[in-house]
Amino acid sequence: MQFTGILPEDAPDPRLEREQLVRSMPIPIMEFTPQPALEFAGFGVTKTGNGSGVDEMSVSVSATLWRNPVDKSDPVNLAELDDTTRRSIEEIPPWPRPAWLIEHVERMRHPMLWEAVQTTWQREDSEHGTLEALLVHHANHILMNQFREELGLSVHDWDSPALTSERVVRHGVHVPIDGVFMSGAEIDTDPFVYAVGAKLPNGGTLTVVVPREHLPYLTLEFVQRPST
Confidence band (pLDDT; 50, 70, 90) for 1? Predict the structure, then answer.
């Protein structure tokens, strides 16, 4: 979530529009099972279709990571920030800001599982809608957006070849979903992220991509998010 210019104090919260889009998802949305280390941080939504309706929709769930959830003031809960990000957080402007923007800025102080859990619905089966394809697409999306410096990517490298591929997808893993182990697949070859996913009983697809450094703090189990 990026903002430019000066926002008035009463600027509408963009999360409200996103939540309205989420309500149009044809199937339930998945998220991490409730656990002390995670705090819901927002949705991401993508839709494709034409004048006759939506053909595909994905909803992703982001979460703030608390390495020490018992004491949230513990410095271990702070993220490693570059100088630009740190200045954007610490420099308070001389004009009032919307409460939701202040909340967003404060959240930037902590590690984020950005768009980590994604639920995808498709009206019809397609080649790019297989579990393998969606898992690779999700992993590449996280890598391209969260690990650009580590991968040596410049600002012009958005059309780079895929950073991982379906060749490395391994089947035969069991993914806990709503208390039941579902047959799924994983990508466990990338040095920066771990990815896992499964087809859902309702016809959707769950994919999850998590930075490896955060794995020790997480339980990789998933549940339907309560309806809002």
Answer: very low
Element (H, E) at 196: strand 193-199
Instruction: Give which of 165, 149, 169 is closest to 157, Cα–Cα.
Output: 149
30 CB neighbour count, 10 Å cutoff: 26
Name every residue whose Cβ is closer than 8 Å to that of residue 176 and which is 6 or more positions away in sequence.
Answer: 33, 182, 220, 221, 222
**CA dist 47 to 32, 122, 210, Å?**
22, 10, 23
Please choose, from the candidates 92, 135, 137, 85, the residue with its C-alpha nearest in 3D space to the C-alpha of residue 111: 85
- Give the model confidence (pLDDT) of 113-158 as tens digits: 999 999 999 998 888 889 999 999 999 999 999 998 898 887 766 6
Helix (H, G, I), strand (E, B) or coil at 123: coil
Which of 35, 55, 39, 59 has its CA nearest to residue 227? Answer: 59
Is 156 strand, coil or helix?
Answer: coil
For the chain, which residues make up each domain, given as ranges?
14-224
